[in-house]
Specification:
Length: about 220
């Protein structure tokens, strides 16, 4: 799926269904919990890694049966059973309901695929190899993990606050963009990398004030 559209889905409070109770399902459930989705799991048995998540999800302890998805009208579905025929049936039902569906290890049956992600809240960095090489995706994830430290997350939070304030205090979008570029061109990231947070924040505030932005 190399020609897909990368997006961030807002799944907060939306119904999502995971069918299957193995380690793949555990990873999907964990990701959905991070997105604040409302999760229903359908599986007669579950892996130990899911047992610790049961307080956060609704578990239907039984096999999937045709028509199950109709009752939930989900936004998104993961088919992770060990039976390819069952997974295809789940995909067909999800498609008929207009739900997004991902079938484990079967991109041709899926309407979306997951990307490997690196999270530095509020930053999320995602990468995808079009299904060609999960090993390469893991390698690149390690490269990104080493390159993008917590300093970027700190600066992202500061820039988010600055963006909100500058909308009212800086006249034009061109000027606001110049302000953000001035922040990024400064020594702040280096200071943050050296754990000199107070000095970096002082420099940040002084630069903002020089552009007429006051908290």
């Amino acid at each position: 799926m190399s020609n897909g559209l990368p997006v961030m889905l807002n799944l907060a409070g939306r119904r999502c269904v995971v069918v299957g109770g193995g380690t793949v399902a555990a990873r999907k459930i964990t990701a959905l919990l991070e997105a604040d989705a409302s999760i229903t799991l359908i599986s007669p048995e579950i892996a130990d890694s899911i047992k610790n998540l049961l307080q956060h999800i609704h578990w239907e302890q039984r096999p999937y049966k045709a028509g199950d998805l109709e009752a939930y009208r989900p936004t998104l579905v993961y088919a992770t059973t060990n039976d390819p025929d069952v997974n295809r049936q789940i995909a067909q039902e999800a498609n008929a309901l207009g739900a997004l569906v991902n079938v484990a290890d079967e991109l041709n049956e899926s309407s979306f695929s997951n990307m490997m992600t690196l999270r530095r809240p509020p930053l999320t960095i995602a990468l995808h190899t079009g299904g060609t090489s999960p090993a390469l995706a893991r390698h690149l994830s390690g490269v990104l993990d080493a390159a993008v430290g917590e300093e970027y997350a700190i600066l992202a939070r500061w820039l988010g606050d600055l963006r909100t304030l500058s909308r009212d205090q800086v006249d034009t979008q061109v000027q606001r963009q110049q302000l953000y570029e001035a922040v990024l061109a400064s020594d702040m990231l280096n200071l943050l990398q050296q754990h000199q947070v107070e000095q970096a924040r002082q420099q940040f505030d002084e630069l903002a004030q020089a552009w007429g932005v006051n908290a």
